[in-house]
Amino acid sequence: MAIVLTNDDVKRATDIRGILDALDAAYREEYAGQATITERVNLRFETGWLRLMAAALPGLGVVGYKEFHLVGSAVTFQVNLFDLHTGEFLAAVDGNHLTVLRTASTAALAASRLAPDASVVGIIGSGAEARMQATVLGELLDIKQMCVHSPRRERRDLFAAELSPRLGLDIEPCANGADAVADADLIMVATNTGGNGPAFFADWAPDVAHISSTGSTLPEERELDSEVWRVPELIVVDRLQALDESGDALVATRTGALDTGRVMTLAELCGRGLAGNTPRRTLFKSVGSPLQDVAVAAYAYRSAKALGLGTRLEGFPSVKGSVPVLTGGERSPR
């Protein structure tokens, strides 16, 4: 029987370690050629947009999709899950907290492989994603210090005041982005720049550092200056489509700063690992993936069921009679 998981249900059912394990398993499955993932479907209309992202993960026994849309200034997220073998509707999962958590956890998964010994974190951004990234890293790695920069003083001060006691870390708010990352060996750029231009520049990058960028996911958005892409010896993307979807990568390609010969996917990093030593400077770029959404939603669903969370849906949806397996000339059911 299907269940509906609210945002509060998701928060109660998920933990960072469980999410990281689910993501790692899903990326290993993708590397093994067992996962099936769609491109994004983007629908724009007069009052906003709607996007669909689907994935099938045999290792988790699920197939599902994430739908999120904007109308006016409001964005809503939802993930629907189905049993891969029976087609049974399993869950409708609120995707609000889930999306922020999977974004931060995916970035942390890359950081754990590219900068496992990082102890000083520089964060550019102070919103929900930046906060979640600080929280995940604080639990995953042995972090000694964080510095945060945000253009608005009250935002960066609040970030430090609220998260410092929660994480048990010294978090220093910085008025200048370059100062925030000067001593960092792990840099997390998670901004809401929109079309306002880059928030991180190449001459800010230390000699040894891992840089992560998760805030610019559309062609019109940028948070990295194009020259940043010349800095790393290795670039990891959550999906190759990131190079065609993010304004950061598109501009870097046009200026010749992006060398695709230095690019590998997160699935390759998780499934195969690196040949030789980790490069001194690396970059992770994420635009989101249906694999991430379905994997973390499946974990939330199973955890919620074990905890007795969620609202049960009796007899929904109804089941249509059996249909023949499609062959070349057959029509699909409408």
Q: Which sheet architecture does the biggest sheet show?
A: 8 strands, mixed
Q: What distance separates the N and C termini?
A: 25 Å
What's the CATH topology label of the largest domain? Rossmann fold
Q: What is the number of domains?
A: 2
What's the level 1 CATH class of the largest domain? Alpha Beta
Query: For this entry, what is the oligomeric state of its chains?
Result: single chain
The CATH homologous superfamily of the largest domain is called NAD(P)-binding Rossmann-like Domain
How many DSSP E strands?
16
Structural class: alpha/beta
Question: Helix and strand succession?
Answer: EHHEEEEEEHEHEHEHEEEHHEHEHE
Average residue-wise pLDDT: 93
Strand content: 25-35%
Count the DSSP helices: 10
Q: What best-fitting shape do the alpha-carbon axes yield?
A: globular
Extract low-pLDDT stretches.
none
Task: Give an account of the 3D structure.
- The protein has 334 residues and is an alpha/beta fold.
- The protein has 2 domains: 2-98 and 290-313, ornithine cyclodeaminase, domain 1, CATH 3.30.1780; 106-285, 3-Layer(aba) Sandwich (Rossmann fold).
- It has 10 helices and 16 strands.
- It has helices at 7-13, 16-31, 96-114, 128-140, 153-167, 177-181, 242-245, 247-255, 266-271, 290-307; strands at residues 2-5, 36-37, 41-45, 48-57, 62-71, 74-83, 89-94, 120-124, 145-149, 170-174, 186-189, 209-213, 234-237, 263-265, 281-285, 311-313.
- Strands 1, 2, 3, 4, 5, 6, 7 and 16 form an 8-stranded mixed β-sheet that branches.
- Helix 5 (153-167) links the parallel strand 9 (145-149) and strand 10 (170-174).
- Helix 2 (16-31) packs across helix 3.
- The longest helix is centred in the first third of the chain and has 19 residues, at 96-114.
- It is globular and about 65 Å long.
- 46% of the residues are buried.
- The mean pLDDT is 93.
